[in-house]
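Subject: Sanity check before I submit

Could someone independently write out the structure tokens for this chain? I want to compare against mine line by line before I put it in a report. The sequence has 394 residues.
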Amino acid sequence: MSQWSISRNGGSSDAMRTPRQAGETACLQNKQLRLLKENIEQFFTKFVEEGKATVRLKEPAVDVCLSKANASNLKSFLAAVRLAHRGTDVEALPLSVLVPAKTSEVEKPKTKMIITSRRDYPLTKNFPYSLEHLQASYCKLARVDMRMLCLKKLRKLDLSHNHIKKLPETIGDLVSLQELNLHNNHLESFCVALCNSTLQKSLQFLDLSQNKIKALPVQFCQLQELIHLKLDDNELIRLPFKMGQLSQLRFLSAARNKLPFLPSDFRNLSLEKLDLFGNPFEQPNPLVPSIQLKIPLTLLESAARATVNYRIPYGRHLLPSHLCEDLEVAKTCQCGNACLSCFIQTTVTMNLHYVAHTVVLVDNMGGTEAPIVCYFCSLTCYSQFLDRYLQSNR
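---
Independent answer below. Compare away.
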């Protein structure tokens, strides 16, 4: 909460001022009035009889909240502000002597709001524009309230324990958002638009646990500022293909999902803590690979491999979008070369301590190992891998 005042001193007060002081006061008044001209978006005067009112400005986009005022004086003040908004000359405004508020009487802008029940949820008034932390849990929300998406200073948004099924793309407009908690909702997906939004540069904490998500888009790994990611108690059948691109990630939990194995890129992570307990990991068998090779390689496969291997620039202005998407999810052979639709795939065991300092046991047997996918671009690469594998297991 803050206060705004425009006043023109008169009477005995003017007699005590020098001409220079009076001139400075007039300049200040004119400057204040110029700031108000055509800059008011809306007045909120429902509670003016109680000495309360709000003036919403366009620039800067703030709410000027007035409270604990004399109702009569407040009405006069609002009348003057309305005239100033319309461009009325300062000399024609009905301004009176106003006593400046003491510092102790000025309420600071509200930066935090905690709502934990449906009955406390604000239905008829907006959220304060100054909010940096908003929690609206146990409110039975079926969707994200669009009023929240106007809170440009919001750094932490907690919508846990609601009934939200889908996220609006405009959450990505919250340019300052660092923490997003969606624990225990009804989400089935995480939209690509959010992965391409300003969240790429701001989001550090994301809790999607206890939802109904089966897969995350490839573009999810563009959220490269993520430090803490919670995916527990979903229906995930795979983790994002380019998981290793999350170079800032330090805490990852995806317990009690339906993961059969981990993506090849997972080995590029560097975590402090990892929790994959309760997933139905398959028993790796490098001797029984899935072979999807075509010999000789198709022209499309050869061209695609060359594009990735030699880092040839491409884009949707040069190639059809479906080809760009294929190139973006190119697999990497253990030799370092790329492969797209022609490859040999198998799984091997990886000790999770290879990517995390602290590992929660994968199962009740005390294991800390999990299967990870490996890709090979040719029979030669697979044969070399197989020779090393057999020698190490003699």
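---
OP: Matches mine. For the report I'm noting this point. The helical segments are 12-15, 19-36, 71-85, 192-195, 199-202, 299-309, 321-328, 379-392.
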